[in-house]
Each structure stands twice: as structure tokens, then as C-alpha cells.
Amino acid sequence: MNTKKPTQITIARGDGIGPEIMDATLRILTAAGADLEIEEIEIGEKIYQQGHSAGILPEAWDSLRKTRVFLKAPITTPQGGGFKSLNVTTRKVLGLFANVRPCVSYHPFVDTKHPEMDVVIIRENEEDLYAGIEHQQTDEVYQCLKLISRPGTEKIIRYAFEYAKAYNRKKVTCFTKDNIMKMTDGLFHKVFDEIGNEYPDIEKEHWIVDIGAAKLADTPEKFDVIVMPNLYGDILSDVAAQITGSVGLAGSANIGDGFAMFEAIHGSAPRIAGMNKANPSGLLLGAIQMLVHIGQQDVAEKIQNAWLRTLEDGMHTYDIFKENLSKARLGTKEFADAVIERLGQKPQQLKPISYSNQSANFKITLKPQQEVVKKLVGVDVFICSKQRDPESLAKRLQVSNSDELKLSMITNRGTKVWPDGFPETFCTDHWRCRFKPNNASKINYADVLTLMKSIHETDLEIIKTENLYEFDGVAGYTAAQGQ
Ligand code: NAD
């Protein structure tokens, strides 16, 4: 007698095509014998409209905390300020740091320009520009903070290498834009090199994201696992999924320490909602990742092989339907029926899936950080001024020069405009004014406060400050463009 308890999971049917693809997915899971105890929560548009700006009822978190496994259909994020994306919130509050997005082509059964493609994109999920810290600072200038942390980066890079090891992948590629963002993306690249050294059997490469993205779109077969900061991963996983044949063909796992959420990579596709047209494959593949995660590899394998056989048999939803390739154009429900009919069968030409001996649950541990010596070596004071003349702004600011701190540079949108600026440089009302110590003497934060008080008394408007530090003698800030 089987005494093993079913695994508890939480599901949400979401918005748009969500309920249809969730129904199809759950019918297939049940027919395949997935051993699940399902709790349902409501999320999305209806909840936003009830005034919950996060799109989820407070009590729904209790279910998630209990089951720690979430199968989520896409939701519609309302446009406009005040509403927060539930997807981003869930990933961040539950610490789901790794977003795993396999993008595979199914040639010759699904039309694609890239028959050999089998790429897994591992996207950092918690930080970067998705920290959601944005401010309007002046009439003209808005800011979004890009935060990249060492622990966040170490976790995702190590996850990518551990994933490659567990799934027998040969190469891990990293995309960043560290030729421009030398500190944030620079850290991501540096940690990739450091941690990569611990995996001598895995090939490693780094591309600047622009040429990397071009190569991925042109020759995806040359890539294996790709690890990226959040924004690049978000954009490029859609590109990668779409060029396999349809964005509707890719699932996604969001993995944290003790929590996981599984979904399709696409959105709620409101234009085809309620029409029994949507391809349920993305959510189904997310659910298959979930089954592997909870230790039901046999059921995962059974469903994925039946699904591959369904594609091989030309049973296609509208998004992948092609007269010369497909045998039937099926609705969402009928596609699910076609998969159910094939449970127990294997693909004949595509490679059958085997998840035995594979567990996606590797533990990521961080090495303790070494102590560093941090020294205050100046301050950037951001000023709002509609007077577009850097020379006269410098003169007004120099009144505040003290024995400790002295104006050394002014930039506008990062480009040096004083001293020795170019008259051609276009200036907004947002000025970054760098004050450095007068001599090699030590400064402290009280000196910064004295400086700010003095600037304030000149009637200039300070909109924010950013301390300049050295860490073990290395500058923790960048030079200006043109400096
Ligand atoms: P989308 O992914 O919903 O749709 C993009 C295109 O792909 C559309 O042409 C759509 O018809 C098609 N498509 C998507 N899924 C499909 C499927 N399963 N079968 C067949 N065709 C499919 O992107 P969008 O239109 O930019 O966004 C719609 C809404 O979804 C927005 O409110 C957005 O915020 C939300 N969204 C949610 C998630 C999520 O919940 N994880 C992710 C992305 C977007």
C-alpha cells in the first residue's frame, strides 16, 4: 500500500488565458497520476480591483508559506502607478532568486529557423533594475536604481554552474554590459569568472550582452546554459522562446531556498482569452519542472514524453500550426486531450526525456564575506538647477568649499561639463557635483553635513547625495564620461 502523502501545492488560475491553460494542465497532471494535494488562491486583476495593490490577498501568503510550491498561471498587471507586479513581488518576497527558462526547438515538428536549439536561460530574479526603486528627481530627470549585490550574484552564478553539472550541460555563458556598467555588471562578470574557476569541467564564456543577444538570435545552437542579470534575462528569454517556434512553448521555474514557483514564460494574452485557442504547453512545461522539483520525476517524464509525441503527431495549437507540418489545429482543451491520449507513449524521432537520477534540488551556499576597509573619500551632491551654465553653477558651489571638501567636477547625465566641458554638451536641470578632500587628509560624514548645510544656504536645491568610498584602497565609484 502506498502510504506516501500527496505533495501539497498552491495554484492560481490568473487572468486572460490563465484559467484555460491551468485547466488543461491540471487535467493532464491528474491523468498522468501526479500525486498532489491542491490548494487554490486567487490573484490578479480581480484582486487589484478590490484595492490590493500587490494583486494578492494577504491571507493567500499563508497557503504559499505552507505548501512552498506555487503553480501560477499568468496574470494581467494593470497599467499605471500604484500597482506592483505580483510576479516580481512573489519572486522577491519569497526569495526566488533563480529563474530557469529552457528554450528548446522541436524540429521538424514545430517550424523554426533554428532546428538545433536547446538553450537554458538562467535569469537573476531579485535585483538589478527590478528593485523597483524609481524617483522623479527634477522636472526633467527620472531615475531607476540598478542594484547588483555580491551575495545575489554569487547565488545565481553558482546556481547556473550547479544546474549545468546536474543536467550534464557542457558550457555556461554569461552576458553583461560591463564595458559600460563597470561596477554593477562588472561585479556580475567578475563573480562569474571567480566561481567558474571552481568548475573546471564546464566550458565558460562571456559576451557583452548586445553582441551576445545578436549571436543568440542568429546561432542559438552554439549556446547551452546562459546566465544573466535580471533585465537582460527577462528580454532574452522571450526572444529565445519565440525563436524556437512560439513563446507559448516555454515554461519557467523560479527557485529559492525552500520555495519555488512554476509558470509559463508568456503573459495572459488577453486578445485570445476565453477562445479555447491558447497553447497550454508553457504552463505544462512549468508544471513538469515542478514535478521534478518535488521528486515526481517519473510522472514528469511520462507527461513530457506524451507531449513530445503529441507535437510529433502534428497535433498543434494555432500558434504553431503550419499547413505542411500539422495534422490538426486544436483548441486548448483538445490539445490537452491529445496529450492525455498519448500518456505512456514516447516520441519516435525527438529525443525521449529521462529525469531518473536527476534532481534539481541542489543547495546553494555562500562563502563568508571577507572584511574590507571602507573609507569615505568624498561626496557627489546632486543639484537641481534650471540655469544651464556649468561655469556659473561651479562659481555658486565653490562658495561652499571648505578646508575639508572642495568642488572637483560637475557632470550632467554623467558627462563632465566642468571644468573644461564642451559647449556642445546638452544639459538638463540635473547636475552631479563631486566634492573631494582638499588634501590627503581624512574626512568624515560630519564634513559632508557641513558642506550640505553650506550649499543649502546658497539657495541651491540638493536633490540627493551619494557618498564616495574606497574599499581596501580601491575606488567604489566611477569616473565621469569625458573625465
Ligand atoms: P503575452 O505573453 O501575454 O502575449 C504576447 C503574444 O504571444 C501575443 O500575441 C499572444 O497572443 C501570444 N501568446 C502568449 N501566450 C500564448 C499561448 N499560450 N498560446 C498562444 N499564443 C500565446 O504578452 P503581452 O501581451 O505583452 O502581455 C499581456 C499581459 O500579460 C500584460 O498585462 C502583462 O503584464 C502580463 N504578463 C504576465 C506575465 C506573468 O504572469 N508571468 C508575464 C508576462 C506578461
UniProtKB/TrEMBL annotation:
Classification via Pfam families: Iso_dh, Isocitrate_DH_C_bact
Cofactor section: Mn(2+); Mg(2+)
GO molecular function, one term: isocitrate dehydrogenase (NADP+) activity
Isopropylmalate dehydrogenase-like domain span: 8-339
Keywords in alphabetical order: Glyoxylate bypass, Magnesium, Manganese, Metal-binding, NADP, Oxidoreductase, Tricarboxylic acid cycle
Entries under PROSITE patterns matching the protein: IDH_IMDH
UniProt enzyme class: oxidoreductase
Source organism, top-level taxon: Bacteria
UniProt signal peptide: none
Keyword Mitochondrion on entry: no
Catalytic activity: D-threo-isocitrate + NADP(+) = 2-oxoglutarate + CO2 + NADPH
InterPro entries assigned to the protein according to its UniProt record, in alphabetical order: IsoCit/isopropylmalate_DH_CS, Isocitrate_DH_bac-typ, Isocitrate_DH_TT1725_C, Isocitrate_DH_TT1725_C_sf, IsoPropMal-DH-like_dom
EC number: 1.1.1.42
Biological processes annotated in GO: glyoxylate cycle; isocitrate metabolic process; tricarboxylic acid cycle
Protein family membership: Belongs to the isocitrate and isopropylmalate dehydrogenases family.
Described function: Catalyzes the oxidative decarboxylation of isocitrate to 2-oxoglutarate and carbon dioxide with the concomitant reduction of NADP(+).
Subunit comment: Homodimer.
Protein name: Isocitrate dehydrogenase [NADP]
Originating organism: Sediminibacterium sp. KACHI17
Taxonomic lineage of the native organism: Bacteria, Pseudomonadati, Bacteroidota, Chitinophagia, Chitinophagales
